[in-house]
Write a structure and sequence with these properties.
With 230 residues, this protein is mainly alpha-helical. Helices cover 77% and strands 3% of the residues. The chain has a two-stranded antiparallel ribbon.
Length: 230
């Protein structure tokens, strides 16, 4: 087989997957960039630009999953435009509005992926990627919601180790630990709105894990019952 044909075949196989697989990989790369650069000023632009790439990937996922296309575009378009403006103009209010719209977009995308996973009775590889990326979308969505709370009230979330205002990476860390019920507790919501957000995230995390586990067990039991009946 010629190299061009091999490349075309590989490209077709990659593009045949649901875009959630590519979004999950992109989010993992962004986390690696956070770890490598560790908040250094000179690399903030790289993180911000790659964050915009993640947002464009979210747009791809939501338009591929949502049956109500106008709803997906009406949320995604202003979210991306505001994120681009926030990247160019350093303004807390603009950043808060951008994070608010991004949070809504992440939550809406997570909802469309859950609907995508529940629309059939088979567990495919694409759906397993969707399971993973839905979790990360919820984590990112709550992290942006925490950021809005922090801009609204700068003392609403505190780094208990240093006593300083958390960075976005620390808010993302809080979101992941809270959503997964790890609860390490060094980044602490202290205001009422921030604590309500934390409780809502705990509820979503437990509910999501219970839904995924129960669905997988149900489908496996159904598959096993069909085999024994034959």
């Amino acid at each position: 087989m010629e190299p061009h044909s091999k490349f075309s075949g590989l490209r077709q196989r990659l593009l045949s997957h649901h875009p959630s697989a590519f979004l999950l990989v992109t989010q993992v790369v962004l986390l690696i960039l956070y770890a490598v650069f560790d908040g250094r000023e000179g690399h903030r632009l790289i993180i911000s630009v790659f964050g915009l790439v993640v947002l464009l990937m979210v747009l791809w996922v939501v338009t591929a999953s949502s049956r109500v296309q106008w709803m997906a575009w009406s949320i995604a378009t202003p979210a991306i435009l505001l994120s681009l403006l926030a990247l160019l103009i350093d303004n807390p209010t603009l950043s808060a509005l951008s994070s608010l719209l991004e949070s809504i977009l992440y939550f809406y995308t997570a909802g469309t992926l859950i609907a995508y996973m529940l629309e059939d009775t088979r567990v495919t590889t694409d759906e397993l990627f969707a399971v993973g990326v839905t979790f990360t979308l919820l984590a990112w969505g709550f992290a942006h919601a925490y950021y809005v709370s922090l801009v609204w009230r700068p003392d609403s979330i505190i780094n208990m180790t240093t006593g300083s205002t958390p960075t976005f990476l620390e808010l993302l860390f809080l979101s992941f630990t809270n959503l997964s019920a790890t609860g390490l507790g060094d980044i602490m919501p202290v205001s009422a709105p921030a604590r309500v957000l934390a409780m809502l995230e705990q509820f979503c995390g437990v509910g999501y894990v219970a839904m995924v586990v129960s669905r997988l067990i149900g489908l496996m039991s159904k598959k096993y019952s069909r085999k024994t009946e034959r």
